[in-house]
Amino acid sequence: MLKKIRTRRHDRIGFWRACGGEGGSASSSAPAQSANPSGSLIERINNKGTITVGTEGTYAPFTYHDKDGKLTGYDVEVTRAVANKLGVKSRI
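Structure (tokenized):
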């Protein structure tokens, strides 16, 4: 189970929400409400065949654009690794 991490950047919390974490404030103890309540997150990812994550790409080393303009960084690589492990594509 992924755990939420607390940072000052909203894109870090958004990343964990996209991965099924709770998101929101550190004091929140209620589970996140899904926009699509049908099926678990992993079932929806498997059915779709893609993990979709949004990020700004402006917070190196977590997300940034390399010299060729390609989005890279820790969050991008972790997303790709999770998608690879699940056998689905990543869309960032």
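Residues 3-10, 22-31 have pLDDT under 50 and may be disordered. The CA atoms of residues 23 and 43 lie 20 Å apart.
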